[in-house]
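Re: that chain you flagged

S.,

Sorry for the slow reply, it's been a week of failed gels. I finally had a moment to sit down with the sequence you sent. For the record, here it is as I used it:
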Amino acid sequence: MDMESAEAILAGARHRAQTMKLPYAGALLPGEAYVVLQHLPESRLVDVRTRAEWHYVGHVPESVLIEWNIYPSGQRNPAFLEQLKAEVERTETPVLFICRSGARSHHAAQAAAKAGYSNAYNVLEGFEGDKDEDGHRSSIGGWRFAGLPWVQG
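Prediction finished late last night. Pasting the structure tokens below so you have them in one place:
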């Protein structure tokens, strides 16, 4: 795959956003997000989970780590957009947001789009995916389930 493939994936993500009536540029599956990150060097992956999740559950190497909700209070991070702008200055940069299952990253992508980031994308399924029948994550969808690079600790 190459840059043209990454651009085709983003076009599909934008189409998915129209179909899903999303308030940001697009929605990507984990494997699609990985291809975009590999072939569009200016793109950034922003992990919006908590510090505890990054440390204990793991995170994607070289991702930008900005809490959407502050641990341990769970309170919304009032400096989220300020921190995003410090890490991703150019608002036209493709910014891919990821969380545990895709919910917080949806809200982060929405906030980024509203703040002028024209290429804000949500990574569907998130880092761990949905719970399986036993209530466990990372067995149905998600970045880790897809076998994509991640580190822990």
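What I noticed first: The first strand starts at residue 26 and ends at 28.

Talk soon,
D.
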